[in-house]
Amino acid sequence: xxxxxxxxxxxxxxxxxxxxxxxxxxxxxxxxxxxxxxxxxxxxxxxxxxxxxxxxxxxxxxxxxxxxxxxxxxxxxxxxxxxxxxxxxxxxxxxxxxxxxxxxxxxxxxxxxxxxxxxxxxxxxxxxxxxxxxxxxxxxxxxxxxxxxxxxxxxxxxxxxxxxxxxxxxxxxxxxxxxxxxxxxxxxxxxxxxxxxxxxxxxxxxxxxxxxxxxxxxxx
Length: 220
Description:
Blueprint lengths: L8 E6 L2 E9 L2 E5 L13 E4 L1 H5 L5 E2 L4 E3 L3 E3 L5 H14 L12 H10 L6 H26 L6 H45 L21
């Protein structure tokens, strides 16, 4: 008996990050980034592997969809399993040429696209943004505390602020730019495929076209 239902969005812990994929069967999990180390992932493509190869030494779990988080925001509901599978197989065949990027074009973004349509987000990256925001708030409180006591600012604080600000700007720019580049490359093919899914008889709405969510605007 299979542990997962076809179309499930899976994740498995790989050291400091979670690896994501779409489960088709125990013999077929579609993933992006393969099982390569982080330093080798830039040359990887979408591929299909067995569940055992996907998990390696870890244990896969189903990713939760359809809820709100105070920390990472909106997590849209997953679509019907057959749509999730169709999108994963479509992207596997399409093979977008954009190389893997840990921040801006990673396995979680691809898996979320398959699960929820045009929802291209990586909650791992967004959690990193959240941690950085809290660190910045703590730094401001610390500076205010020093100011109230008329104490000098420590020399390390200047480096912390400058480096932290540079990292925040670079990471957010990379994130938005990576998602925008992906949409620039696949937009027409993706939207045409989404329209085919909307007209599929399995929707029960073949005569009533639903609105396809527009890809996110990452120009800002």
